[in-house]
Design a protein that fits this description.
With about 250 residues, the protein is of the alpha/beta class. The chain is about 40% helix and about 10% strand. It is built from seven helices and five strands, in the order βαβαβαβααβαα. Strand 2, helix 2 and strand 3 form a beta-alpha-beta unit. Helix 3 crosses helix 4 and helix 3 runs parallel beside helix 5. It is globular and about 55 Å long.
C-alpha cells in the first residue's frame, strides 16, 4: 500500500478549473485539524496541526485528492493556562467544521477525511458531525474522522500522549527538523513562562501534566520524551495510514 503514489494537490493553491478537474479525477478531501498549544520545550507550538498536516499529506500520496489548509482553531484540553496556547470555543470550532464538511459534500467529494492532531477534537467532531454523517450516508460519501489513535479503530489502535514519548516519536518520524530533544533542559524561570507571570493552579490543568516550569519535561503527559525515536513513530503511524488508504480506495472502486 505504501508504494502507491497518486497525484494530490493543496486545495487553496488550485484555480477553479483545476479544482474541478481534480475532484472529477479523484474526489478525496483530507482536512488536517490542529491547534496552537504548548507542547513542551522540544516541540513547536503548532505541533498538533503540523503533525496532522504531515499525516494528511502521507495519506494523500496513497490515495490522491486534495489536502485542505490546517484548521488551527479548536478547543478543549489540559493546557489552556499555558503560555502560547490558544483555545477557542468548541461550539465555534465544531460549527465551522460541520459547515465546511457539508460544503465539501455538495461540491462533489466522495471521500472526506478529517485527521485531527489535537486529541480533544474527537469529542467536538462526534458532537458536531452527527448531521453531516447522516447526509454523507444518504449521498454515498465515505466520511472518516478522528485523531491517529481513533480514526482507524477497531482495526488499528495507535497510542497517544501529550508531548511525551509517543507524540515526540511522531514528530521525529514526520517533521524531525522541528524537534529538538536537546531543549529538554531544566531551570527555566517560571515568571517568564506563564501568562503575566502567574503559574497555573492544580485545578486548571490536567492532573497528569508536568506543571513545574523548572522541569525539563514541563507540559508533558506520558513517558519521558527522551525515550522517543523516529522508528517507534513510524511503526505506530504506518498501519493507520495504510488502513485509511484501503478504506478510501475500496470506496472509490
Amino acid at each position: 500500500m505504501s508504494g502507491l503514489v497518486f497525484p494530490w494537490r493543496r486545495y487553496e493553491e488550485l484555480r477553479p478549473d483545476e479544482l474541478r478537474a481534480q475532484v472529477d479525477a479523484r474526489p478525496v478531501a483530507i482536512w488536517p485539524l490542529g491547534l496552537l498549544e504548548h507542547h513542551g520545550w522540544h516541540l513547536p507550538i503548532g505541533f498538533d496541526g503540523l503533525k496532522a498536516e504531515q499525516l494528511s499529506i502521507k495519506l494523500a500520496e496513497r490515495v490522491g485528492g486534495v489536502v485542505l489548509p490546517v484548521m488551527w482553531w479548536g478547543g478543549e484540553g489540559g493546557h489552556g493556562p499555558f503560555l502560547w496556547t490558544h483555545y477557542q470555543s468548541p461550539q465555534a470550532a465544531g460549527e465551522i467544521v460541520a459547515q465546511t464538511v457539508g460544503q465539501l459534500m455538495r461540491y462533489g467529494f466522495r471521500a472526506i477525511v478529517l485527521l485531527a492532531g489535537h486529541y480533544p477534537w474527537q469529542e467536538i467532531l462526534d458532537k458536531y458531525l452527527a448531521t453531516a454523517k447522516e447526509e454523507a450516508s444518504r449521498r454515498g460519501v465515505l466520511m472518516l474522522y478522528g485523531h491517529e489513535g481513533t480514526i482507524a479503530r477497531p482495526a488499528v489502535s495507535c497510542r497517544g500522549d501529550h508531548a511525551a514519548k509517543e507524540e515526540t516519536s511522531f514528530g521525529l518520524a514526520l517533521l524531525p527538523e522541528l524537534v529538538d530533544l536537546k531543549a529538554l533542559t531544566a531551570g527555566r524561570d517560571p515568571k517568564q513562562h506563564w501568562p503575566e507571570g502567574n503559574a497555573a493552579t492544580a485545578q486548571t490543568i490536567h492532573p497528569c501534566t508536568r506543571s513545574d516550569v523548572r522541569d525539563g519535561l514541563f507540559a508533558q503527559m506520558g513517558e519521558d520524551a527522551r525515550q522517543a525515536s523516529a522508528e517507534h513513530g513510524r511503526k505506530a503511524l504506518e498501519p493507520m495510514l495504510d488502513y485509511l488508504a484501503r478504506r478510501i480506495l475500496d470506496h472509490l472502486g
